[in-house]
Amino acid sequence: AAYMRIFPRHRPASWAAACVALCCWLRSSRSTLEPVARSAFVTPSHRTSAETLRIGGLRDERLVALSAYRAIQRRDSITNTNLQKWVGQQLKLEKRQSAGASGTGVSVSDEKRNAYLAKLGLANKIAPKVEEGAWHLNHIAPGDVLEGWFEHPSSGRVDLTYTAETETRGVMTSTRGTFESEATLEQDFPIAYAEGEQQDQDMTAYVFMKFNELWRDFDAPMPDESVYDRLSFKGIQTFVNQVTEVPNYPTDDDYQKACAEPDQGMTKSEFLTFLRAEDQQWLSSSFKGVFTGRRLRIKSSLFDMEGDFMNDLPMIFGFGVLEGKPGGSWKLELKRR
User: Fold this and answer.
1) What's the pLDDT tens digit per position in 294-333?
2) Residues linked to residue 26 through DSSP beta bridges, in sequence order
3) Hey, what's the signal peptide range on this chain (predicted)?
4) Containing domain of residue 25, as a range?
5) Within a domain: residue 254?
6) What whole-number distance in Å separates Cα of residue 258 and Cα of residue 271?
């Protein structure tokens, strides 16, 4: 019963397999069986690689009960526009330089084989492209090593390696720069790739942060996670207007009816109920109108680096500040284990 609560979409091959999976989960979470049974289906939080178990070669993603979603990164529009322009240029360059990569997600050798099969009239023999979501859904995780470079007018280009010790801390080193320093890591939580309850919960958490009035005040300090449990009337109107260009919706009357405590704000479950009354897929189909990509920030005594995870390649690009001086740029790439 506990196994099926934790892994609701995976049936074990045997009781032995179920026991092994439970033991692995308990060791990784440092939990006990009783609280797992009570809390397996409450609001999920940022998932780690330890929470995605491979059983019989299958990846099992599920609702996980942890403390809270961590706040997503803020970035002013001017910086973001400049960063996206530069990132686009770097991405094109990387795709050209990547040996065996064509930018389509299929290797050059596979493309030639597929073209040859199609020429012979054997298109039915072409293996369909398998989509598994972005590479970074389970990263950056403890044990990850990312290698790349940092470039700044005052230092030139130096090699850079980030080794993740936890989800929030790591070590930054450079051979050419001759330094080693501890670093903090802040990264947006990933959005589940597969459609379903986990994806809806992730998207809802993202909306509740991005359209929180305190989060949107860039002149004020970043609010803590406790303020993201509810969405104000102004917040949901701003969200709907951004994705549909329909102003003043929902109406005050609609909002009052949808909330048990409208003065305190709309809860996440009320938000999902309200949207699903219009269309079960309303949130997932409109989410691209508000999602600005998954961001991260790495800070040490020398650097302050903010950037974006790339979906096409296992890389992260960004801008950086060196010893208080802006004008830097950087790239980190996940090293294969």
Assistant:
1) 999 999 999 999 999 999 889 999 999 999 999 999 999 9
2) none
3) 1-31
4) 2-60
5) yes
6) 8
